[in-house]
Write a structure and sequence with these properties.
Two copies of one chain form a homodimer.
Chain A lengths: L1 H6 L7 H10 L5 E2 H8 L3 H13 L3 E8 L2 E8 L1 H18 L3
Antiparallel strand pairs in A: 1-3, 2-3
Chain B binds a DNA duplex (30 and 30 nucleotides) through helix 3, helix 4 and strand 3.
DNA sequence: TAAAGTAACTTTGCGTTACAAAGTACTTTT
DNA sequence: AAAAGTACTTTGTAACGCAAAGTTACTTTA
């Protein structure tokens, strides 16, 4: 049992980072504003969660412009996708008491 | 999306409380020692997590003896079972981006 | 009968996290 | 020129997580 719990990824215990990841795994590039509005977060809060995901190489950041407005977009890395999958597997095992 | 995230139960974001609940939903009464050993926790840590679950009426506590040794057992309440189920449903919806 | 063990905590203390709110820098719109 | 937009960073505070040590109330062993 303990080993299953340890397979849960600490970074994904947060509902917000779970939300970010679940959006990113099904969308190619998602921008800051979209995440902010979809998840209804303050700028600072979202930025810090994104930062923790970036620091662990779970997401890529792309800074650019749309028209002349700055735009920051995010996508999940291969590592992030793999870790997320592992986390979901662990969750499933835990819940089903395998 | 935000509404799904809000359906995730804050109390179940913790891997340990998730572990406790997943044990309790499939066992009638589970004692302190078993939980402690299965989850590999210190007494204090386990006690505090159990306390938070009890405070929210998610678990029952039964104090008694086995032979002459004190024994504390826990079981999930109807509320706890229901909330856990709701949490898992929310998790599933979030992950599947419904 | 004194020491050690068991069960289940509570307390202490510290480091980490979460978050809102305010501040920053730059740009664009009005 | 003023207001608003984008994407942060900084600040400050409250909550959380956890190990370790202390506590209570026995029971068992030497």
């Amino acid at each position: 049992m303990k080993d299953i719990i340890l397979r849960l990824n600490k970074l994904f215990e947060s509902r917000i980072r779970l939300g970010i990841m679940s959006i990113l795994v099904v969308n190619d590039w998602v921008d800051f504003k979209y995440l902010k509005e979809t998840l209804d977060l303050t700028d600072g809060n979202l930025a810090s969660h994104l930062h923790s995901l970036e620091k662990n190489n779970y997401i890529h950041v792309r800074k650019g412009f749309i028209g002349r407005k700055p735009n920051t977009s995010f996508s999940v890395t291969d590592v992030g996708r793999k870790e997320f999958k592992l986390h979901l597997n662990a969750l499933e095992r835990l819940i089903k008491n395998i």
